[in-house]
Write a structure and sequence with these properties.
Layout: H1 7-44, E1 55-60, E2 63-68, E3 74-75, H2 80-85, H3 89-98
Antiparallel strand pairs: 1-2, 2-3
Length: 101
């Protein structure tokens, strides 16, 4: 003898199916967003934010500072400004002399 599911059971399983489909769609969207972020990173990595030309990494006292090959802009990554600020006066003078034309 087969038993017909009640209306509440039908609603319950419909809700479960909806949540499953929703989760799958959210994962697809997350994956696409991750892919898009990676694509943008590949396009912009080590390019000057001002003019778009190539950046060269200069290593000075364990600070890796990025300098543009075109506009001579100097770019610091997270935490590097604090490291520069902690240099002593002669060290800071030498640091800035590296980037003068």
């Amino acid at each position: 003898m087969t038993r017909k599911p009640s209306e509440q059971e039908d609603e319950y399983f419909a809700r479960l199916e909806f949540e499953r489909q929703k989760q799958i769609e959210e994962e697809k969207q997350h994956h696409l967003a991750k892919k898009e972020r990676q694509h943008l990173k590949n396009l912009h990595y080590m390019h000057c934010p001002k003019c778009g030309m190539q950046l060269v990494e200069i290593d000075y006292r364990n600070l890796k500072v990025d300098k543009c090959t075109e506009c001579d802009g100097v770019w610091l990554d997270a935490g590097e400004l604090e490291a520069v600020a902690q240099l002593d006066k002669p060290g800071m003078t030498k640091f800035f002399s590296v980037f003068r034309k």
